[in-house]
User: Fold this.
Amino acid sequence: MMKLRPFGIALCSFLFASALVYGESPPNVTPAADGDLPVEEAVLTSAPQVPPPITRRHPARVKVDVEVVEKVMRLSDGVEYIMWGFGGTVPGPFIRVREGDTVEFHLHNHPSSKLPHNIDLHAVTGPGGGAASSFTAPGHSSTFSFEVLNPGLFVYHCATAPVGMHIANGMYGLILVEPKEGLPEVDREYYVMQSEFYTTGGYGEEGLQPFSMEKALREDADYVVFNGSVGSMVGDNALRADIGETVRLFIGNGGPNLVSSFHVIGEIFDSVYVEGGTTVNKNVQTTMVPAGGSTIAEFRVEVPGTFILVDHSIFRAFNKGAIGMLKVEGEENLSIYSGKQEDTVYQPEGQVSTATPDSTAPALTPQQRLSEGERIFNQSCFACHQANGQGLAGIFPPLAQSDYLLADVDRAIRGIIEGQKGEMVVNGKTYNQIMPPQALSNDEIASVVSFVNRSWGNEGEMVEPDRVRKVRESLSSHE
Ligand SMILES: [Cu+2]
Assistant:
């Protein structure tokens, strides 16, 4: 929940005056003819939380206070970035008003800011969406007001030159204008906003990463994330719901460049408010969220499990961070989804099964084993553990410098044969995900384990197929 600051009447009129200094508002600005409207303070929330639905059935004058802060924030594990955030967060606070309300917007720019900022709300009918009227130097505040004429879910963003750079550094958020009659009731509402980051170093390169204008111009994003950082909605921070509940996602895309193909793996959106407007599409798998645009998606959750939110431009999801999670709890419903019912050997005639644990391959030299291991890694492991074994924050543990891997090679072999799930701690970070069993021969596992044991600074053992065979035998003797 955002901190709200109450403003006295006197201060308000002072802010009105200062708006004139920076704004292009005509000189005869007078308080709108809505002096009789009841006044209230907006409830503002940080992603993924959404303010409660509006229950009143009459217009109000809604005061919104947002402070811009420039500060170092986490972009990924070990990666920091100087973000410029509305409300000191990326994305900025979620604002919820009702069609016909008048919004009295107070934009404060923290004295420690290096740059002026402003706000263009796509919910505004007026020049620049409020940009010129809200232009605010460091250590100043601006006030302007607007009536929200159109219902829908709207993006807001900073529009100070260079606009792309202000957006790339985190200056966006969502404002929902509920229709007069309100939105249908649901059990859960969440705020999910996608955006990209362009950093001087590549994905995962540690340290404080400066913005790269060059990459931004090429639209060559290093990070594509939900709610401002890699892993913002995974593990303990995953979204939650219980079986039978209805979930509404308010999805925004700050860009600055990329259009999102928003998808929840294993769910179908029952209703989608196309582009955040009034048209409702039904039974949608993937919905487009334009840069500077939005979508509202609603669905009922019927079966338990972890449902992965992705940008289905899929390299962005598995390699650039655009992954979130919705954990659904409750009773299994095996008629909707059975889970795996059977696993049998499939061996078309004349094929040699690659699942045959013992291959007849000739013994390899260490050099051959490592290069064979590299080939297998690039086929079977890198999609999750990433090209340099660095993993993906909160989702796939690292193999590079992994204390877990290096502490117990037999355990690692077992994990590759049987798959692994449940909680594990790797380099002090807890993972609670699922690695599927890898259908590899003893020889192949020996090679890939040797390779990961000897790559990216790891100084673990070389492994021979015989050792894998023993681990495999110990597993089957336990069954
Ligand atoms: Cu700005």
Remarks:
- The longest strand covers residues 61-76.
- The mean pLDDT is 90.
